[in-house]
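We store sequence with structure; for instance:
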Amino acid sequence: MACGKPIITTEWKGCRDTVKHGRNGYLIDVDDFDSLKGRIEELITAPSEQLIEMGKAGRQKAEAQFDENQVINAYMQQIDKDYVFPASDSSSEKYQKEPVFSDTL
């Protein structure tokens, strides 16, 4: 997804939360090789505009949810909240950094 390409993945934990079927990729059942073959053929024959749109949607999702600095910041905020700072102290700003992904595809 971060590469800006549509993906095919299985209906499994995490995957179905990440991939929106038909929007940024396709979900198939585990061990369903016929579906895998069909989705590969579909991507091969799809219009380039559709592939570009699916790739952009995947890239946007990756940038929004899986940016390294955002994940680290979320962990640090949770650690601060649970273990370091009292409930009234907000320390999350000290972990803000520039995004890792560039604006280009």
The first helix runs from residue 15 to 18. The chain has a mean pLDDT of 85. Residues 67-105 form one domain. The radius of gyration is 18 Å.
